[in-house]
Design brief:
The protein is 27% helix and 17% strand. By secondary structure, it is of the alpha+beta class. The protein has a two-stranded parallel ribbon.
Length: 48
C-alpha cells in the first residue's frame, strides 16, 4: 500500500514543521518506500 501525501494540504504552526513532515515522509526508514508527495491538484479519483 502506498500513502499519497498532498503537501499543499498540510498545515502546521510553522513552515519548518510542514517542511520536516514532507522531508520525513520521503527519507524515514520503512515510510519512505511507501510515500509519494504530490499536490491536491494532481490527485484524481477517476470519472464517476
Amino acid at each position: 500500500m502506498q500513502v499519497i501525501v498532498p503537501v499543499d494540504g498540510m498545515s502546521a504552526e510553522s513552515t519548518y514543521a510542514e517542511q520536516y513532515v514532507a522531508w520525513n515522509m520521503v527519507n524515514a526508514p520503512r515510510v519512505s518506500n511507501k510515500s509519494v508527495l504530490t499536490t491536491i491538484e494532481m490527485i484524481n479519483m477517476g470519472n464517476p
